[in-house]
Amino acid sequence: MIEDKNQQRTELSQLGEFGLIDHLSKNFEVKQQSTIKTIGDDAAVLEFKDKRVVVTTDFLVEGVHFDLSYMPLKHLGYKAVIVNLSDVYAMNAEATQVTVSIAVSNRFPLEAIEELYAGIQTACKLYNVDLVGGDTTSSTSGLIISVTAIGQVDKDKEVYRSGAKPNDLLVVSGDIGGAYLGLQVLEREKEVFKVNPNNQPDLEAYTYIIERQLKPEARKDVIKLLQDLDVKPTSMIDISDGLSSEILHLCKHSKVGCDLYENKLPLDPQVISTCEEFNLDSTTIALNGGEDYELLMTVSQEDFPKIKANPNLTVIGYITEENAGAHLVTRADQKIKLTAQGWNSFDKD
Amino acid sequence: MIEDKNQQRTELSQLGEFGLIDHLSKNFEVKQQSTIKTIGDDAAVLEFKDKRVVVTTDFLVEGVHFDLSYMPLKHLGYKAVIVNLSDVYAMNAEATQVTVSIAVSNRFPLEAIEELYAGIQTACKLYNVDLVGGDTTSSTSGLIISVTAIGQVDKDKEVYRSGAKPNDLLVVSGDIGGAYLGLQVLEREKEVFKVNPNNQPDLEAYTYIIERQLKPEARKDVIKLLQDLDVKPTSMIDISDGLSSEILHLCKHSKVGCDLYENKLPLDPQVISTCEEFNLDSTTIALNGGEDYELLMTVSQEDFPKIKANPNLTVIGYITEENAGAHLVTRADQKIKLTAQGWNSFDKD
Known about the structure:
globular, 7-stranded mixed sheet, Phosphoribosyl-aminoimidazole Synthetase, Chain A, domain 2, ATP binding (chains A, B)
């Protein structure tokens, strides 16, 4: 798509690095009170007063984390911001600023980078975060994006991975497995396209799961909801690598075990139907498919009345003593040891 | 060097992403009071109380910003941190934390990445900053490093690029041009090595300029000095792209002009002798050679008595009205318009 010969093509070298940063950031508005000085100096200046500051950073590498043959650049820019905001929300914090650095090879014209930044801008606007810094440079191959997200949280309101206690409820927001299945559909369509470029795919049956993959959202709304319900989770993590892997992180950091109930896993009907079509086990997908960017948390039993009727939150298990281990309790009431098959970029090659 | 067959070689995939982060960060100590929670959760948690926060980020890309054939990985790790701290100091702030993300191809064994992190750790220790986050992932080619540095500054003590006023003095720390010349020497030795791999280069005459290139320092000491002298510069920037380019940034942001005096440029004797050897004009090198990471600032005339005897600071010119333009006043008392020939990574190839 980005190599379409009919599109306008402005070489990046025409602008140079300073021109490029100025050009790309000129349409971004500053919204946060904490942003004192944004792009244009050696560093941004921020002021958080009596709030604590959270900082997180993530790399997205072409050919490892994304494939531009089905990932539009605008969506990619959006997603690059979202995956970082998700880490901020997982601390029970409010996201306030991001910095975005890109390394691009000469095969990308200015117009492609503008598309990428259009997606970044959409995410910033929707999530009310300011773009306050970044770096643009050339790369010898492909596109690499590095985002750092900053947020604020009242002192002692932050939630770590380490606070889960035996008998706490294990709770997940939204539904899971969709993003991974969306990727499977896109990979299949890519193969079909290679064989028959004139084929027009009908993706009607997969709109939800494809959106979960291409345009994920971070659960800012869930952080707000928890605040409104007056619930402070005892521990929290976002689901980027797969439910199973994230549960094991919480258990390890909190020194606890858990029982996860297979029949409680929240699955969208499209996840179930697509699993059947692909002959995949939906529980395996829910446990190991990543990139859903839902929040996994543990909540004290006494908060159960506050969350039980909420359609955004599902109780999927409970925390046990550490020596009990972490298990999946199947529909047949069998206990299976949970293992992490989360994604490891170093395994690819 | 890193592909020496005799070295121990542990594949990164043996550790996986989580194992790698834990392994690499386990020897880093937390020193800053503002670091509440470091690596190991979704985000770091920091607390700056009534201080303002500065944030800056930079990419270093193999084949664009560094060449591993003469840049040892330990030095590279050190430099990656330094170039970011330099931006923090250029705000008149104190550097407190960094996050470091790396994307590496499979050609790097664990031992190579440990070398890189040894350099990062040395820089963190020496500059008293905490490593509080990062990401490790695979890349399809080469090594890419993204560092974000965070600092703190008392409210209204931060110094921007935009505060220079006519009649202010233009001041630079240390000496300039060395880092660029060091690179020229290293590039020449690389070519010699290609022709005759048994040649043992004698680099005795270039120790200072090679160190400027391979192991630059950020001027934390100058920020401390300014504080001790009770001098708040009216504007400041660090010299990463070349003196000329940085002066033009200050002039543009401050809406002023300047006269820069050729005979005031601070040059190390090794810079002068190496320029002669390479048949280069030392003024051109001082103006356009980058990566010295010295601080360029403007200081009010009334502060002149405080700085004039200081060996770390050289007055190289003064600020004029904007419509006077930015000029170099040569030894022959000619005025030449200053132009930026600073480095642009998109021009390469």
